[in-house]
């Protein structure tokens, strides 16, 4: 299996960096081929601007969606973006690893998504009609591949529980897992989340590392989160509202977009 890890932490001596090395070594020990995009080491440009579209005339306004689609179609996006798209196409599994900062990913990783997930590549693809609304949410360029998050969190696990002050970690990660990874077709595995990472002692690290090794050992067989696919009948098109006759049980909020049926 070919695995791409997109890593976002500015400190090479951090816990996050140590866990990244644990994941890489375990995956390689299992015979997998691993590539790492270390965004801070790469000095990744995270803002979308005119420099991303060299073929855009200075006399024309920057309309990101249309110029992104034109740049992808004409193969005129910048080389750094093309290189990351090639890695995504190469990979069987994509891992995003980051510390949870202000309830989301660091800006550099969001900027990687903004620039690499271009129109025509990760969105804006497929037929739009009264029967389907593009190739997205379970379909798309990256369908058939797996993805997961490795997240380090400073707070306690209880703080991110169903009654915790910060809200459930599943809800906090939903925009990333469902909106960024599932949207272009990736099957999303449950995340690996390490809590209280500002207080990890040397004695606490090894049990955490072993838990991560176990996740890497089972990465090919772990069942993905059963998100409902958009064009498979659960949603009304084009309103994209879940059908009234769909039984969601006791689920509310983001959880209604998960099905008890396994993904085909």
UniProtKB/TrEMBL annotation:
One of its GO terms (molecular function) is NAD(P)H dehydrogenase (quinone) activity. Residues 1-202 form the Flavodoxin-like fold domain. GO terms for cellular component: cytosol. Signal peptide: none annotated. Keywords: Oxidoreductase. It comes from the Eukaryota. The keyword Chloroplast does not apply. The keyword tRNA processing does not apply. Belongs to the NAD(P)H dehydrogenase (quinone) family. This is Flavodoxin-like fold domain-containing protein.
């Amino acid at each position: 299996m070919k695995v791409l890890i997109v890593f976002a932490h500015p400190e090479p001596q951090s816990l996050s960096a140590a866990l990244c090395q644990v994941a890489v070594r375990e995956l390689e020990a299992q015979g997998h081929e691993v590539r790492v995009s270390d965004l801070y080491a790469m000095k990744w440009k995270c803002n979308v601007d005119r420099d991303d579209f060299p073929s855009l005339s200075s006399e024309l306004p920057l309309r990101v969606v249309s110029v992104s689609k034109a740049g992808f179609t004409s193969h005129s996006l910048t080389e750094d973006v093309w290189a990351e798209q090639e890695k995504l196409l190469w990979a069987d599994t994509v891992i995003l690893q980051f510390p949870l900062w202000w309830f989301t990913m660091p800006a550099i990783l969001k900027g990687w998504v903004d620039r690499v997930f271009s129109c025509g590549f990760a969105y804006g693809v497929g037929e739009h009609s009264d029967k389907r609304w593009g190739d997205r949410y379970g379909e798309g360029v990256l369908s058939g591949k797996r993805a997961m998050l490795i997240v380090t969190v400073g707070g306690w696990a209880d703080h991110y529980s169903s009654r915790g002050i910060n809200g459930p970690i599943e809800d906090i990660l939903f925009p990333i897992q469902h909106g960024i990874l599932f949207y272009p077709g990736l099957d999303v595995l449950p995340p690996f989340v390490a809590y209280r990472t500002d207080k990890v002692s040397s004695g606490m690290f090894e049990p955490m590392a072993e838990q991560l090794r176990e996740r890497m050992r089972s990465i090919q067989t772990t069942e993905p989160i059963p998100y409902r696919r958009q064009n498979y009948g659960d949603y009304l098109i084009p309103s994209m509202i879940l059908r009234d006759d769909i039984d969601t049980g006791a689920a509310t909020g983001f959880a209604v977009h998960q099905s008890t049926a396994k993904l085909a």
